[in-house]
Design a protein that fits this description.
Helices cover about 40% and strands about 5% of the residues. The chain is mainly alpha-helical and about 90 residues long. The protein has one domain. The chain binds iron/sulfur cluster.
């Protein structure tokens, strides 16, 4: 299961406390805009609007379908202009 959060997640949040991270990119407006686009894409794929606090069960079927729609580009509005787009496309 994953829990949809707003802002830095459990992986990123501890890094914000490091002294060397003065301007964490995950707090930039561009990142929140990408998050918003991704939430819209996923909600459209699921057939209902999702928001912060949403819990989604990650079973095999769900992950398989998510991978398919990601690879097909149906849930990649947030990826437009992202520096990692080529890398993520290779993985997909
Ligand atoms: S290209 Fe990858 S890192 Fe960039 S927004 Fe898409 S999934 Fe996220």
């Amino acid at each position: 299961m994953f829990l949809l959060v707003s802002g830095p997640d459990d992986i990123c949040a501890p890094l914000l406390e490091l002294d060397e991270v003065r301007e964490p990119h995950c707090l930039r407006k561009s990142v929140s805009e990408r998050d918003h686009l991704a939430v819209n894409d996923i909600g459209r794929f699921l057939g209902y609007r999702i928001a912060e606090g949403e819990k989604i069960i990650l079973d095999f079927e769900f992950l398989h379908r998510m991978r398919q729609v990601f690879a097909s580009g149906q849930t990649r509005q947030a990826c437009i202009g992202c520096e990692w787009s080529e890398f993520c496309s290779l993985i997909a």
